[in-house]
Amino acid sequence: MRTQVGIVGAGPAGLMLSHLLHLRGVESVVIDLRTRDDIEETIKAGILEQGTVDLLRQTGLGDRMMRDGFVHHGINLAFAGGLRRINLYELTGGRAVMVYAQHEVLIDLIGRRLADGGDVRFGVSDTQVEGLESDRPTIRFTDADGTAQIVECDFVIGADGSRTYTRFLMPEGKVRRSFFRQYPFAWFGILAEAPPSSDELIYAHSDRGFMLISTRSPSVQRLYFQCDPETNVDDWSDDRIWSEFEARLSPAGTSVKPGNIFRKDVLQFRSFVCEPMQWGRLYLAGDAAHTVPPTGAKGMNLAIADVHLLDRALGAYYQSKDTGLLESYTDDALRRVWRGQWFSFWMTSMLHRFSDATDFDLRRQIAELDLVTSSTSAAKTLADNYTGLPLT
Fold first, then answer.
1. Which of 159, 108, 90 is nearest to 304 (CA)?
2. Eight-state DSSP code of residue 183
């Protein structure tokens, strides 16, 4: 078959790009190793920046989000025996964030692409991409019915997540460089049937380590606490988990509301950036090109920002054969990516307890948190980055 843009990966980056291109009249084919059920049922966090929310609404994807999501005008920082609020809305001149899980965004995207007649192939195997240095690259795969398929296209988008195949099509060393940081801790996460413990997110710094109170719905809550990367979830009973949350939060004068825990997992912490994000007719987007610790809530938002740039670049190419934005894609995307890496690292290092931390380090963290919550300029820096830079 023949299409204009071949997209490997039906995550937020791949599906959103296919949707945006469709609105321009540009054809695409999207393939993914996972089934539709796997994609829609894999529960992941979702805090959407203002720009992401606006783009989803402007392109017809915001109805369910606006009905079921939670707009948060602030966040809370718990430390040194108190709870202090950062008013995102006032500090940024009216910007906020939306709590709306990633799998819900994917359900919306898949439903819209299929309703619009989009070509999305789930459950494929044996994917091979060839001819990236030519003007007619091909994507070969076996579809869910076991039939071999070949897609000829003008461009290939590698949006196949952190376990990417497409990134490694770039020659290592000669073209591709990797920038990586592994953190010495992880997050122990739970989903629980319980009432909300807070109207807004709480990021807590404590002597026992970091914790985060988030939400999924009025009856389902998402909570995390910092743990050792080798932690085994089976070693933690429900009572032990709730006791740990309480021990970390109670010094701030507030508490968690417990309930039935129906999911436990350990989330590893890594920072990664691939440079460049393009080679020949291949363009990387989302986790295939970069990952961030979840502390700054940047992962899905950076993916959406990537494809916003790619949509404009491909639009210019198909409208007037202008290749300028395609050529500058790596530089344009990386400015935001590295800003997101900085912010995620800053939030992580300010709130977590490192294994080699001294009393000096702990007191320095408290001083930094005090600065962020008492200085308008420092609080605005956090608010501007948390709600997200405008999409350009």
1. 159
2. E
Residues 48/49/52/56 CA torsion (nearest 10 deg): 50
Domains, the chain, in order of start with CATH, read: 5-71+96-179+270-347 (3.50.50.60), 183-269+353-387 (3.30.9.10)
Q: Which residues contact 150 (CB under 8 A, 6 or more apart)?
A: 1, 138, 139, 140
Three-state SS sequence of 324-381: HHHHCHHHHHHHHHHHHHHHHHHHHHHHCCCCCCCHHHHHHHHHHHHHHHHCHHHHHH
What long-range pairs does 126-132 form, CB within 8 A, spacing at least 24?
A: 127/8, 127/31, 127/33, 127/165, 129/6, 129/8, 129/156, 129/165, 129/166, 129/169, 129/282, 131/281, 132/156, 132/169, 132/279, 132/280, 132/281, 132/282
Q: What is the pLDDT of residues 173-214, one digit of tens each?
A: 999 999 999 999 999 999 999 999 999 999 999 999 999 999
| Bridge partners for 186 per DSSP | 227, 268
Name the packing angle between helices 299-320 and 12-24 (round to 10°): 30
Report the residue count for the chain: 392
> How would you write 65-118 as a 3-class SS string?
HHHHCEEECEEEEEECCEEEEEEHHHHCCCCCEEECCHHHHHHHHHHHHHHCCC
Q: What positions carry a catalytic annotation?
A: 72, 203, 294, 298, 386
Bridge partner residues of 30 (DSSP):
7, 120
Q: pLDDT tens for residues 367-390?
A: 999 999 999 999 999 999 999 999
